[in-house]
Design brief:
The complex is a heterodimer of chains A (about 110) and B (about 120).
Chain A: E1 3-6, E2 11-14, E3 19-21, E4 23-26, E5 32-38, E6 45-50, E7 56-59, E8 62-65, E9 75-77, E10 86-93, E11 102-103, E12 107-112
Parallel strand pairs in A: 2-12
Antiparallel strand pairs in A: 1-4, 3-9, 5-6, 5-10, 7-8, 8-9, 10-11, 10-12
Chain B: E1 5-7, E2 10-13, E3 19-24, E4 31-37, E5 44-50, E6 53-56, E7 65-69, E8 75-79, E9 88-95, E10 105-106, E11 110-114
Parallel strand pairs in B: 2-11
Antiparallel strand pairs in B: 1-3, 3-8, 4-5, 4-9, 5-6, 7-8, 9-10, 9-11
The chains are: A mainly beta (about 110), B mainly beta (about 120).
Chain lengths: ~110, ~120
């Protein structure tokens, strides 16, 4: 079945460091891909998405490119801030009759000043 | 605009007792989801509603879990009787449609502890 695999955390970085959180997926079709973020004490919120192969999603300095050939959707940011500390979830969705987000296990990012 | 509202935020109950969670989705959102999030895991879908109809409840343990969405707006998820393994965070989400690219908006969740 369809699934999402994320790198295990926690990921601990110093402020202004480069961030990569790996995400790979297994899919029988052509889903859309998402990154959701959960800040402490808050609900999950959409960070970015990509709807087809080679699409790049971006938001708040974060980027991820839909790579069909490697079935990956790695999250990157050039310079992290303390305020980026959160749990990041990679997910896929086909929509329609099978509309549901299939999430990875989440990666905790801790950014130190 | 108000987001998805869930209550209560926290609930502690003894095993074998019933418990209910309430969700008020974003106004105008036809699609409502309940997800279960176990500690250290990603959320997993329990049930999805399109308006008042439960269109995907394949992952809902129907022997003890039930849900309803009255008039296609608010929703309630119930567990009766609760078991120790039900301790988790129960998330409600809504979206304006079931499109593949549609963003789901999540509430803050209800953290259930069964003792």
């Amino acid at each position: 079945g369809d699934s999402v695999t994320q790198m295990e955390g926690p990921v601990t970085l110093s402020e202004e460091a480069f961030l990569t959180i790996n995400c790979t997926y297994t899919a029988t079709g052509y889903p859309s891909l998402f990154w959701y973020v959960q800040y402490p004490g808050e609900g999950l919120q959409l960070l970015l998405k990509a709807t087809k192969a080679d699409d790049k999603g971006s938001n708040k300095g974060f980027e991820a490119t839909y790579r069909k050939e490697t079935t990956s959707f790695h999250l990157e940011k050039g310079s992290v801030q303390v305020s980026d500390s959160a749990v990041y979830f990679c997910a896929l969705n086909y929509g329609g009759a099978t509309n549901k987000l299939i999430f990875g296990t989440g990666t905790l990012l801790a950014v130190q000043p | 605009e108000a987001g998805v509202v869930q209550s209560p935020r926290y609930k502690i109950i003894e095993k074998k007792q019933p418990v209910a969670f309430w969700c008020n989705p974003i106004s105008g959102h036809n699609t409502l989801y309940w997800y279960l999030q176990n500690l250290g895991q990603g959320p997993e879908l329990l049930i999805r509603y399109e308006n008042e109809e439960a269109v995907d409840d394949s992952q809902l343990p129907k022997d003890r879990f039930s849900a309803e969405r009255l008039k296609g707006v608010d929703s309630t998820l119930k567990i009766q009787p609760a078991e120790l393994g039900d301790s988790a965070v129960y998330l409600c989400a809504s979206s304006p449609s079931s499109g593949q690219n549609t963003e789901a908006f999540f509430g803050q969740g209800t953290r259930l502890t069964v003792v």
